[in-house]
Amino acid sequence: MKRKVFGPLYVKSEREIQLDIVAYLKTLNIQHTITDSGVNARLRRRKMRKSWPDITALLPGGRMWCIEVKTPKGKYQEGQEDQLKDLTYCGAMVTVARSLQDAIDAYEGRQNHEPQPRRSP
């Protein structure tokens, strides 16, 4: 795995951020699945909706939590932002996590981070 180093600052890859988030979910005993990652991502995309978030979790009480993992400078792929907005509209908690801290903040605040619903209820 190539590491990006900018001066004294190390920037984690999406995969590393994702692994940090999964470890955090495990400590909280939150049921989850990684929906699109790793070397075989192309194979998985055939089974998953193209723009589905990277991690899908089930929060206590039954609310779905969708986490799209991006690097600090990462951009949305085609359709991702609309998919996240649609999930928000349907009642899911949606987080775009550019670090483990983003996921922690979202969980502790039980709020969406980034995409806002594109439709009014």
Describe the structure.
- By secondary structure, the protein is an alpha+beta fold.
- The protein has a single domain (11-109), classed as 3-Layer(aba) Sandwich (Trna Endonuclease, Chain: A, domain 1).
- Helices cover 32% and strands 21% of the residues.
- It contains four helices and six strands; from the N terminus they run ββαβαββαβα.
- The strands form two sheets. A four-stranded mixed sheet has the order 3-4-5-6, with helices on both faces.
- A hairpin with a 2-residue loop joins strand 1 and strand 2 (9-11).
Task: Provide the gyration radius in Å.
Answer: 14 Å
Number of helices: 4
Which architecture would the CATH scheme give at its second level?
3-Layer(aba) Sandwich
Oligomeric nature of the chains:
single chain
CATH topology: Trna Endonuclease, Chain: A, domain 1
The whole-number mean of residue pLDDT values reads: 82
Overall geometry: globular
Relative helix content: 25-40%
Low-confidence stretches: none
H/E topology pattern: EEHEHEEHEH
- The class by helix and strand makeup works out as alpha+beta
Assigned CATH class: Alpha Beta
- What percent strand? 15-25%
Largest sheet: 4 strands, mixed
Question: How many strand elements?
Answer: 6
How many domains would you count in the coordinates?
A: 1
Quick structural gist:
The protein is of the alpha+beta class and 121 residues long. It has helices at 14-27, 41-45, 80-89, 100-109; strands spanning 4-6, 9-11, 31-34, 55-58, 64-69, 93-97.
Task: Give keywords.
single chain; 121 residues; alpha+beta; Trna Endonuclease, Chain: A, domain 1; four-stranded mixed sheet; two-stranded antiparallel sheet; 32% helix
